[in-house]
Write a structure and sequence with these properties.
The protein folds into two domains: 198 residues, Alpha-Beta Barrel (TIM Barrel), CATH 3.20.20.140; 77 residues, no CATH class. 43% of the residues lie in helices and 15% in strands. It contains eleven helices and eight strands. Helix 3 packs antiparallel against helix 8.
């Protein structure tokens, strides 16, 4: 277990089940130096973060979210830290963009299913969301997209497909889905709010170690860092990515990317302790509300 975990998802992410307090409780038990709640596309859960932080003032935390962006090479996840815990007007514009995208993507899912003869309209999708999401998140975010595993299990149960492979084939036929917000809509707003942009789980994005692609993405996204340590990053690549960060004066981060409160997986990554010291030279750490 590392001494920090800077990539954690809660029930405020469309695909996660953890309560915010779960992570604070685990962090206090293990003497974790810092954690970061980085829910998908938003910071809607920061009221819960402040409540949990008040109960566990010994636990340090960084503020931020994991924002997915679209560019000419596809879609990329960015862990954005040092964002204000209470949104600024610029960030409110950004959250409005993502809330609209979530609802549009969900509606497009329903339209694609229905057009193929499968009755998963907006009403049915809402019932599916309500089967695992808390109402407080639905009240804020609306009728969004659905957790991957929940959706494919539902499709098998309803007879839309026979198994996971059949579901994958079905989804591949959905060619008119809205893509994520463009990187040049998102990153300037993050930077204007004081945010630090870190490329998440980079192996696939970097095509393992394609230096030209690494350089291109570093410049395109104005990267401040790379998530060098993640369960999807093998040990030899942790070292390679860390060396790349040193060459280009980038921060190195590490996180478990947990979506459920599994204590044995919390802060399990190969990031060095001093990486956090480097991050804290640029990113504010909070204790309490």
């Amino acid at each position: 277990m590392a001494t920090y975990d800077l990539h954690l998802h809660t029930e405020w992410s469309y695909d996660a089940l953890s309560h915010v307090e779960d992570y604070f409780r685990i962090a206090q038990k293990h003497g974790t130096r810092a954690l970061a709640i980085t829910d998908h596309h938003l910071m809607d859960g920061y009221g819960d973060v402040l409540e949990a932080a008040a109960k566990y003032p010994e636990v340090g935390y960084l503020s931020g979210g994991e924002l997915t962006v679209h560019c000419d090479l596809g879609e990329f996840d960015l862990v954005c830290l040092n964002l204000p815990r209470r949104p600024t007007p610029v960030l409110n514009e950004l959250w409005d963009i993502y809330h609209e995208w979530q609802r549009a993507y969900g509606h497009a899912l329903s339209e694609n299913f229905c057009s193929r003869g499968f009755p998963l309209d907006d009403e049915a999708r809402m019932k599916l969301l309500q089967s695992y999401r808390p109402q407080k998140a639905i009240d804020v975010q609306g009728n969004t997209h659905v957790q991957y595993s929940a959706l494919w299990h539902y499709c098998v149960e309803q007879g839309f497909c026979k198994d996971l492979e059949g579901y994958k084939a079905l989804r591949q036929s959905f060619t008119d889905m809205p893509h994520y917000p463009e990187y040049d809509q998102v990153i300037p707003r993050v930077k204007a709010a004081g945010g630090v942009v870190i490329l998440a789980h980079p192996v696939g994005y970097f095509l393992t170690d394609d230096r030209n692609r690494m350089d291109y993405l570093r410049e395109l996204f104005s990267l401040d860092g790379i998530e060098c340590a993640h369960e999807a990053v093998p040990a030899e690549l942790v070292k390679l990515y860390r060396k790349y960060c040193e060459e280009h004066h980038l921060l190195s981060s590490g996180g478990s990317d947990l979506h459920t409160p599994e204590e044995d997986k919390f802060a399990v990554h190969l990031g060095e302790d001093f990486w956090l010291d480097e991050i804290l030279e640029r990113v504010k750490i909070y204790h309490g509300a």
